[in-house]
């Protein structure tokens, strides 16, 4: 039986679509937050807390955090494979940077859904 190894890995079309979709989500989130800042005359803790008490804002923020992780993972992979020729150095950099992105998203989730 012949197994198509390419089908087990991601391809360029999937990366392209994922990057564009996450960019759209992040752009919409930035527009939403900027709109909130522009339309709210005074930002206090109570107003900010009230905004993020809304479940739709929490879900939108969660979607933005996941989009950041996906966008960063694909972008870092593309940049590191293009510019870092040493496989060992690339592996170390990928591990460190992916861990940093994971920590960023984990802290974001903790702040969003915790306490």
Q: Could you walk me through the main structural features you see in this protein, from its secondary elements to its overall organization?
A:
By secondary structure, this protein is mainly alpha-helical. It is elongated. Helix 1 (12-39) packs across helix 3 and helix 3 (55-83) runs antiparallel to helix 4 (87-113). The model has no long low-confidence stretch (mean pLDDT 90). The chain has one domain (15-113): Fumarate reductase/succinate dehydrogenase, transmembrane subunit (3 helical TM bundles of succinate and fumarate reductases, Up-down Bundle). It is 81% helix and 0% strand. It contains four helices and no strands.
- How many strands, which pairing sense, and closed or not: the largest β-sheet? none
Helix content: over 70%
Poorly predicted regions are: none
Q: What name is given to the CATH topology?
A: 3 helical TM bundles of succinate and fumarate reductases
Find the structural class using helix and strand composition: mainly alpha
So what's the overall shape? elongated
Annotation field: number of helices: 4
CATH architecture: Up-down Bundle
State the CATH class: Mainly Alpha
Cα-based radius of gyration, to the nearest Å: 18 Å
End-to-end separation in angstroms reads 54 Å
Taking all residues together, what is the mean pLDDT?
A: 90
% residues in beta strands: under 5%
Can you write the helix and strand succession as a string?
Answer: HHHH
Q: What's the domain count?
A: 1
